[in-house]
Amino acid sequence: xxxxxxxxxYFIIVSLIIIAASLIVRGIIKPKNADTLxxxxxxxxxxxxxxxxxxxxxxxxxxxxxxxxxxxxRGVAYMNKGDYEKAIQDYSKAIELDPKNLAAYNNRxxxxxxxxxxxxxxxxxxxxxxxxxxxxxxWYGRGLAYQQKGLRDRALADFRKALSLGxxxxxxxxxxxxxx
Length: 180
What we know:
Serine Threonine Protein Phosphatase 5, Tetratricopeptide repeat; 10 helices; 81% helix
């Protein structure tokens, strides 16, 4: 009799595995691994669904551990949501894990600037420029931070450098500052 129950239990388990595999193959259920969560989060960002993207990145980090790209991407979601403080935390973690992550420094600088922390912003933009001197966006961003601090000459110098590197948007800032 015990043999009969073992066979029945085995049959049920095999049947459930086959059903689950069939549902996965047909796309009805998706196994949640870190890569699936990250891909889902990236799609949610494209749709502007930042809360769900943040949740999926958070769940992916629980499975994947300390991954600088996932911290960076969650920071992007926070930044797009307007939660700059949490974005700064995630960019900081990404930088801690990957100290040469230009995008994380640049976005953290933008987040600092958005919260009025101009000195921190300038420091991060300067770090980006130490790592990649021809990064026109960083020249422009640092120029904006200088401008917001009232440092006209420094702002002008950075805007001119950004323009020389092809950042056309700097023209307007240069014209405005030269009028003053």
